[in-house]
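Justification of computing resources. Each target in the renewal requires a structure prediction run like the one illustrated here; the chain below, 129 residues long, is used simply to show the kind of job we budget for.
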Amino acid sequence: MTTYTHWHVLMASPTEPIPVKKRRYYIALMRVALENCKTKITEKDRTVLSSAVDLLNTLCDMKLIEDNEKALEDAMVALMQDNLNDIEVRMFEGVLEDYEMVMENLPERTMIAAHRATEKRIGKRKVAA
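Resulting structure tokens:
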């Protein structure tokens, strides 16, 4: 089951970013998850943060952003631990800043298309495993 359908892509703005209210909600959700990770990562926190990393990876695959420092790979490795150390928390803060910047600047249609592509890629990975 996917979060968005092709219809969502077609109905999304091709020029305007995701509405401010939705952007604030997503970022707040991720900030809370990151704060929780300083003590003990829950499955929900891990899911929220990995969703951001997965979406950024898709945007890299789409050649819309770059990850020259391989921060996204480091972030995924960090999420496999029980908690994050101070360096990993700062790294994730940077990843979330990048995610927020992308949401503020890319059109809503692009973000929803990337979300769909991410779900398809992860679904294929789960089937292969």
